[in-house]
Design brief:
31% strand, OB fold (Dihydrolipoamide Acetyltransferase, E2P), 2 domains, seven-stranded antiparallel β-sheet, alpha+beta, globular
Length: 347
């Protein structure tokens, strides 16, 4: 039996050593594949208010947190914590900044909400403000926790054009669920939206957030994220107050306005929700803004003091009356300019 002929390496002479071709020199006109530049700022995706949770498998649900929206930028040079209004508050959240430095990543941008929890584990906006020294204060908050719900930039890559499901997958690898650190994952909750909203309301939470799993990250209120509240809560401009000798800070009722186009319109008053401290701080702020005539038509008011509409109050309310006034309102606190406080727009 004859032996098969000795095979040759493909396309080569068997007697010559195998050798790869020398590389051509790189064309300097052809750049290397670059990393995405680290953004200085990303305008946040905002949730659109809806009366009921959406239906369908593409919607993911989370708890709605009540705090300050923050973006945490992690770079080799350090950590920056920016508010929604583009203020650098790195020094005011030292625990969050320190935890961000410990995360196993070289570059990242985290999107989340700084909160302070009450004794029942609910986010409490009033406690957060107090921990920061009140509205306009400059204290550091060591109690604040960042509930992080999105990852916008990761290890040199811009993720804003990537669908939510992929962003969440990367985020969950970076910030695991169930931690007790200053940066914690805002977990997705597998439940029917109506059931989850009912449970959230029963536990005294503000509401829930619904997010389209297939959506990219788009700044503004495009409808990819929705918020459904147990109790309505929005920002209203303070246009004055009615004096009272029997109330905290001498404030009987705050006079409130909403935005309608380029103008403000009166939407009623609020006389509950104050304590001695919050009313005192509020009165001090309002007394710096007193004007002789009201900025909006409030109707006839006794013992009223009118102020320039520079302060935005967060007001909880149940509904609207037929004549466009707030029903069962309650004062929650002053929104800070650093949180890009907006005034509610009536239709």
């Amino acid at each position: 039996m004859t032996k098969p002929p000795k095979s040759k390496p493909l396309l080569q002479d068997a007697d010559k050593p195998a050798r790869s071709r020398p590389r051509k020199p790189r064309d300097p006109a052809q750049p290397n594949l670059p990393l995405d530049p680290m953004p200085d700022r990303i305008d946040p995706c905002l949730a659109l208010l809806k009366p009921n949770p959406p239906k369908g498998p593409q919607w993911a649900f989370e708890v709605k947190w009540d705090g300050y929206r923050l973006a945490v930028h992690i770079e080799p040079a350090g950590v920056r914590i920016l508010t929604r209004g583009d203020h650098d508050w790195t020094e005011r959240f030292p625990a969050i900044a320190a935890e961000a430095r410990r995360l196993p990543v070289a570059t990242a941008v985290l999107d989340g909400e700084a909160v302070v929890f009450d004794t029942h584990g609910r986010s409490d906006f009033g406690r957060l403000q107090q921990s920061l020294g009140g509205r306009g204060g400059n204290r550091m908050s060591r109690e604040a926790v960042l509930m992080v719900f999105d990852l916008l930039y990761f290890d040199g890559r811009d993720l804003t054009g990537t669908e939510l499901t992929a962003r969440r997958h990367l985020l969950e690898g970076l910030v695991p669920a169930g931690g007790e650190e200053a940066i914690r994952l805002s977990e997705e909750i597998e439940a029917d939206g109506d059931v989850l909203l009912r449970i959230a309301c029963e536990h005294g939470l503000e509401g829930i957030i619904a997010k389209d799993r297939n959506s990219t990250y788009r700044s503004g209120r495009g409808g990819e994220w929705l918020k459904i509240k147990c109790i309505q809560s929005d920002g209203f401009a303070i246009v004055g107050y009615e004096k009272s000798t029997a109330s905290f800070g001498g404030i009987g009722r705050l006079l409130l306005a909403a935005r309608k186009g380029d103008e403000l319109v009166y939407v009623g008053g609020v006389g509950t929700g104050f304590n001695e401290r919050s009313a005192g701080e509020l009165r001090e702020q309002m007394d710096k803004l007193i004007i002789g005539r009201p900025a909006v038509n409030t109707g006839r008011k006794r013992n009223a003091v009118f102020v320039r509409p520079k302060l935005v109050a967060e007001i909880e309310y149940r509904a609207w009356t037929h004549d466009g006034k707030l029903r069962h309102p309650s004062y929650k606190g002053l929104r800070d300019a650093a949180d890009n406080a907006g005034v509610y727009e009536v239709g």
